[in-house]
Design goal:
Layout lengths: L1 H16 L9 E3 L9 H4 L4 E2 L11 H7 L5 H5 L25 E2 L5 E4 L8 E5 L2 E6 L2 H4 L4 E3 L9 E12 L3 E13 L15 E2 L10 H4 L8
Parallel strand pairs: 3-9
Antiparallel strand pairs: 1-4, 2-9, 4-7, 5-6, 5-8, 6-10, 8-9
């Protein structure tokens, strides 16, 4: 009986010692400024697309490319594609893009809480995409990723995008967007790895396709 009690106590202690895992996702570094202080709100999705007429499946990437969106950002910044939940802004979700600019990390890192669901993600510095993956839950298992900040000259806007794919009663497509203004000029360290999707993109890669090509994209997939 005593051993059983000790075992239960040990299990409880282990649970208390285990750090909590964010159920959704957020940026930690550079740190954004939120427009709401409630933690349960400011890490929540900006939109749930299954509630906006989309015929959601597990293959969001195939759907996006089939609709002519060249990047995840192009879809997420298409104001005709979806509406944000109450209280969030379409451009930056729960974050304030007009806050005091943050210093560019000296270690060239972007750090997130971690991707808890499947789905694609991207990080942009103004018009330069510095990180991209089709399934960031697997592509970027570590919370910290080195990126090339050298395109950020005399300040820029860091934009993070993630489309979380979560199986609920029906497949949930969850939109996450955050913006952090940065100051200073970034540099690329010699040990920075080459990351898929890097490079400056013309405006068409950050914008929705022409309207005549997307007239059927909102909302249901064909």
């Amino acid at each position: 009986m005593q051993l059983h009690t000790l075992a239960l106590a040990g299990t409880a202690a282990a649970l208390l010692a285990t750090p909590s895992v964010d159920a959704h996702a957020r940026l930690y570094k550079p740190e954004p400024e939120y427009t709401v202080s409630d933690r349960n709100t400011n890490w929540s999705p900006v939109a749930f697309l299954e509630n906006q007429g989309y015929k959601t499946t597990s293959d969001f990437n195939g759907w996006r490319r089939g609709k002519g969106y060249k990047t995840l950002r192009a879809f997420m910044d298409d104001s005709s594609a979806y509406k944000p939940v109450s209280g969030a802004t379409f451009a930056c979700g729960w974050t304030n893009p007009k806050t005091t600019a943050k210093a560019i990390p000296t270690d060239n890192v972007v750090r997130l809480s971690g991707y808890t669901h499947d789905g694609p993600c991207e990080v942009w510095l103004d018009n330069v995409r510095v990180l991209a993956g089709d399934n960031c839950n697997k592509d970027f298992a570590e919370q910290s990723q080195k990126i090339d900040y050298s395109s950020c000259k005399n300040g820029c806007m860091l934009r993070w995008y993630w489309l979380g794919i979560r199986p609920l009663e029906k497949m949930s497509w969850q939109v996450y967007k955050q913006c952090i203004p940065l100051k200073g000029s970034g540099a690329r360290s010699l040990d920075d790895p080459e990351v898929g999707g890097e490079g400056e993109y013309p405006d068409e890669y950050a914008a929705a396709p022409a309207k005549n090509a997307t007239s059927s994209c909102n909302r249901k997939a064909d």
